[in-house]
Amino acid sequence: MTSPACIFCKIIKGDIPSFKLFESDKVFAFLDIQPLSRGHALVIPKFHGAKLTDIPDEYLTELLPVAKKIAQATGAEDFNVLQNNGRAAHQLVDHVHFHVIPKPNEKEGLG
Ligand code: 5GP
Ligand code: ZN
């Protein structure tokens, strides 16, 4: 279920440090190291697979509720949830991840 060479598997195991936001038996969430805005988070399954199509449904179904809670916790009214699959789709890390990217509006200030 994990891949020794995978950065995100190492983060799940704690071998690479991260700013952890949430953890359950199937899901791990942490801040992106190169945030596109303040609070940019990544939500990942504790199951190694590069693409959405590689992950069992029982893991996938837990990812969106966590993404939703993190989006709410940022307080941002506007946000993106993104999930890239494959190089042509701009995926750099081959372990499924949902980006949660707050998009502060003018009222909320800068990201
Ligand atoms: P992708 O382009 O694959 O959808 O996005 C991968 C994301 O993972 C990027 O936003 C990148 O900043 C983030 N990332 C890559 N390596 C690390 C790391 O070691 N720690 C953290 N926290 N984020 C990482
Ligand atoms: Zn992995």
From TrEMBL:
Reactions accelerated catalytically: adenosine 5'-phosphoramidate + H2O = NH4(+) + AMP
Single GO molecular function: adenosine 5'-monophosphoramidase activity
Stretches assigned to the HIT domain: 7-110
Segments carrying motif Histidine triad motif: 95-99
Names of the cofactor(s): Mg(2+)
Record keywords: Hydrolase, Magnesium, Nucleotide-binding
One GO term (biological process): nucleotide metabolic process
Active site: residue positions: H97 (tele-amp-histidine intermediate)
UniProt KW Kinase keyword: no
Family designation: Belongs to the HINT family.
Name of the protein in its database record: Adenosine 5'-monophosphoramidase HNT1
Organism: Talaromyces stipitatus (strain ATCC 10500 / CBS 375.48 / QM 6759 / NRRL 1006) (Penicillium stipitatum)
Residues of the full protein shown: 1 to 111 of 135
